[in-house]
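Render this sequence as a predicted structure.
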Amino acid sequence: MRRHGGARRVGEIGDAAARAAQSARSVEEFFEAVKRVVRPALRFDVCACLTVDPQTLMNTGGDYRDGLPPALMPRMLDIEYREGDANDLSDLAARPTPVGLLSRETSGNLTLSPRYRDIMRPLGFRDELRVLLRDRHGAWGALVMGRADDAPPFGSAELAAAASLVQPLGNALRRLHLTRLAEANASETAPGLVLLDADHQVVHATPTVAIWFNDLAHADGVPSGDRGLPPAVYAVAAAVQAAGAAASHTSWMHSRRHGRVRLHAWRLEEPTAAPARTAVVVERAGPAEHIALIVAAYGLTPRERDVMTLVLRGRSTADISRSAGVSPHTVQDHLKSVFDKTGVRSRRDLVATLFARHYLPDMSPPAFAPQRRPRD
């Protein structure tokens, strides 16, 4: 494959992008480095870079500076999580190679896609290429790229290049999640409540919403002066309005100022809250979000997760053996694997490290740090 005067084998593109993003300390830096490396090969005109919850594939933020206009984001997320469309993230996640081209997924009839009809065609874009960034521990983000009508179509070479990004960038983004978990800052801001109408327009917002959402919008690459909400908010709101969906849905996203935050949406029934149709609460993430993301980011197996949880509760090897119905030797094998994956050497070190990396930042001022315990 030759682009812009340089030659590079397809298999090298993902590795080069991962190396370029290795020193990134934020999602924006990560995706900026990735775009710089892959643009010559993929030649996109727009590119939205998003992070996703590995448990749910819900949008949790990202970098939209080279993406679609912010005003179109509510409609985009409504299609993604409520209406459904070809080439969506859940479709990609089910494939051995999670790469999709909208024109191929619609057999050349792009007008079958509401995303094309309502967003791409009015803006003058001919096609959409998506790649889900995942490793063996889960999906961590995605690249959504578009080409304008006056550009050549995406071809087999671009699809092969996109496929080469899946594993190396998925792995690199998971590691960045670990860094962000460790560096999350405390937040004392009271929860915020926003009510949205059927078109996801704000009907009412409590005073603290501006504090939460202005920061979250900035973290997503949306200018702080823009009155729109972050994409993750529209996503969770659309999820509860989907046909057959549960009346409530919980997701999370990352904020520079507040660390991990929980987004909880409820579907409101008429006529009690007319014209509001959806309520979304934003608040600091709790222990459930901590442990779920820690387990996924470190790549722990279900059994290793169970053992780690019991260790964090102070249970002995004998207790864990009885609870899990396995031999003490098997418990020790699982525990050794947990140590290897989390980079510690003892139970006490495991407890102290997880607390310092993932819980203390949300509980104490950044200046406070615990004294390191001696090893067992």
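Summary. Confidence is low (pLDDT under 50) at residues 1-7, 217-226, 360-376. The longest strand covers residues 125-135.
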